[in-house]
Each structure stands twice: as C-alpha cells, then as structure tokens.
Design goal:
By secondary structure, the chain is an all-alpha fold. The protein is built from one helix and no strands. The radius of gyration is 17 Å and the shape is rod-shaped.
Length: 40
C-alpha cells in the first residue's frame, strides 16, 4: 500500500463520517433542545 492510496482512503473515511455525522449531530441537537423544553 502506497502513501497516495492511504491519503485517498483517509479522505474518503473523513468525508463519509462528515456526511453521516453532520445531520446526526443536527438531529441530536434539535432532539435535546426539544426535550429540554418538555422538562423546563
């Protein structure tokens, strides 16, 4: 395995996590915010 392949693989994993993590984080933030209003 060469270094160029490793960089491409790392970039792909980073992009995949961002694609999943950004909407997930947004959804969790809104869910926590809504739950806080229920208990306030």
């Amino acid at each position: 395995m060469n270094a160029e392949h490793h960089v491409d693989h790392t970039a792909r994993i980073t992009a995949s996590w961002a694609l999943v993590g950004i909407p997930l984080g947004y959804g969790l933030f809104n869910a926590i915010k809504a739950a806080a209003q229920l208990f306030a």
